[in-house]
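Give me the fold.
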Amino acid sequence: MGMSMLFAFLALMVLGVPLYIALLSTSLLGVTMLGDWTVLRVMSQQFFGGMDVFSLMAIPFFILAGILMNRSGLTDRLLDFSRLVVGSVRGGLGYVNVVGSVILAGVNGSAAADASALGSILIPAMIKDGSPAHYAAGLTAGSALIGPIIPPSIFMIIYASMTNTSIGGLFAAGFIPGFVLGGAFMIMNYFYSKKYHVPVADFSEVRKNMKEILTRSVAALVAPLIIIGGIVTGIVTPTESGALAVGYCLAAGLFYTRQLTLRVIGESLYETVRLSSSIFIIMGAATVIGWLLKWEQIPQKFASLILGAGMLDKPWLLMVVLSAIIFPVGMFMEEVSTLALLTPIFTPIAIKAGIDPLHFGIVMTLNVTIALITPPMGACNYIVAAVGKVPLADVFKNIWPFIGVSLFVLLLIITFPSLTTLVPRMLNL
């Protein structure tokens, strides 16, 4: 039954059937093979139950906060701040790209949103500064991966909701890996800037307006502080911190930058509903198929296979093997579905092997995140190609070094679990 459902799902994906319909159709096939039509009633319960999870309420707030940051002009102020900090060296705009991604990561938790916001501004600027177009697009797509790693993170919320893991603990676990990934891209930018002989940009105008930039940037830096500070200190829940960030961005956009109008707010709400709905309906459909897989004891059978291979005694090898499954699946499948399908199967096995659930959550999140820049899907590649007006073929051809750097960071995190567990332990999360 399990293999039949897998082949049916792959066939529907090849035919271009929408993902949630493919998942539900595959589930219906599984019910047909079971021959028990009373299960259909349970399917509907599982579908709505997969969406009716309190922790998932945080997702629309983080999405809306990120959209309001972009539309209120606060994102532009963050980029000005990044230019002031790291923009006066060779390849400075490349560093601005990475630092901007790190700061924006503290608002929306979405790689696609970061790639869109930064790409439209920084890719043309980097090209004008002397960087090759494909490198500017590749660095923008690569640095956008920091978004789902540094809290808040939509992927982490999904993982936590399915495993009863502390969202605050998982967010705290993402700090060091996120900064390690950012540092790796900065090192890469250093060598590539020398390779392409990128000139040192003239930032005298930026330095001349230092006081004004710092003053303007304060308002933009408050939003990440509200989200990260509130969650890590335990003052508010992730959902409450997202709501506070939305309220702040609304107030800042209406009364400080004055770039938000009723029409813009309405468009932002529409975009939030559209994006959130797609995530929730995929979560519901994936919950149904995950329930059927549990019904057929697929996780137990897979665990027996792992046990027979003796990998439960070798946590490092187990995580490498599981990553070798998660990453390719994420290459061909939407990331939310990948998490929703594989988390219930792999997490119990990882815990049985003695792997900290926070550590494994970061490993899973990073796997599906790297898939966002990996062909043939690689959603971030399509985004940076579109907003940066760079040929998609050039992006796909030159994205591999960024994938390699990201996979190296993944291997580093697998090898040294303390990179993920140190901060949660310090904060008693």
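DSSP finds 23 helices and no strands in the chain.
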